[in-house]
Amino acid sequence: MTKLSPDAFYELPAHSRGQLLALWGKADKALDTSAGFSGEIVFLDNGDGVFPRLTCAKFPRWRKDLSPALRAERFLREIKLQAAAHYHPNVHWPFNVILILGVPIAYFRRWEGDLSDFIEDSHWGDLGRLSLIIQLAAGLAHCHARGLIHQDLKPQNVFIRDLQSSFTLPPTDLWLRPLVADFGSVNLAADVGEFTGSRPYMAPEQWHETELGEWTSVFVLGIMLHELMSRGVHPIGERSSDWHRHINPGFNRWQQNKRWRRWVSAGCPIAQPLADYGLADLVTACLATSPSDRPPLREVQAMLLDMLHRRSASAAHQVDLFLRMAESQSAAAEWQHLKSSIEGLERAINEHYPRSTA
């Protein structure tokens, strides 16, 4: 019997790999691909008349410096952390996990895009933008309550669910739901001393390699609040679209460490403060260089909800109702299917890569 290569899954042609993932995911066919902090993604189409129609399969990136066993263990760690945030409607989660040819695979629902796809949308008004950032604060607070510190928060790691794509709803800006995604970077500073994230969204304590916590998420939330309400301007004073879309020369310039170290050393100045004084002051508070000077997430959430209420009592009521529902759902018992799937994946990894007892 021919022994398979440890990297047999990665050695498959991309088309064949997609077909295999579609088969195990019970999908009709594989579509395009993407990549995240620690994994590759294949998007799947379940076919006409199936809900949800679009899903995706994520698996660890192939890295020469990591053994197949270590790649599998690190990916399992990521999935366990992501499952620990279940169930909150503002957190992205897998619905199934399996092992294929020694490679762990996580299946997720595919949503309507990520936050970077919506920031510059001229048809999306302030009420919807405030509604979304309030929900994002709630999702992050839920993660921190469970000991999860996301070190790579950025618009690309905030997936967007558009309820209007699934349901017939009255026209309004309030139907977009953010989901915190990509847990590959979660708790890396505490676990292995790795502090990095995406440069334009790294907090001062990440650059200084000091303790991370809820205050780190508050800093990034402040950046994204400014981007959202300015329609795409980073607090540093430049539009962020080239970085989001990997367009040069802008992308390469934004990837330079010294650029962001200078900004942090200067006190994270906001080049073009928001016109709304209340929002501008909140962004300034979130971007305080000292973590102890930043407000906690729940306080940010409450302040934003109050600002939304001043603009529209009905919009604020709808968001508050959603937050109460989310709080109730997240307090529910564990999802046994997901729990048993992850336990099964861990057993399969341990059997496929037995640890040496020597």
From TrEMBL:
Residues 27-304 form the Protein kinase domain. It comes from the Bacteria. Pfam families: Pkinase. GO terms for cellular component: cytoplasm. InterPro entries: CC_SR_Kinase (IPR050339), Kinase-like_dom_sf (IPR011009), Prot_kinase_dom (IPR000719), Ser/Thr_kinase_AS (IPR008271). One of its GO terms (molecular function) is ATP binding. Keywords: ATP-binding, Kinase, Nucleotide-binding, Transferase. The keyword Nucleotide-binding applies. SMART domains: S_TKc. SUPFAM superfamilies: Protein kinase-like (PK-like). PANTHER family: EUKARYOTIC TRANSLATION INITIATION FACTOR 2-ALPHA KINASE EIF2-ALPHA KINASE -RELATED, PROTEIN KINASE DOMAIN-CONTAINING PROTEIN. Belongs to the protein kinase superfamily. Ser/Thr protein kinase family. GCN2 subfamily. This is Protein kinase domain-containing protein. It comes from Rhizobium meliloti (Ensifer meliloti).
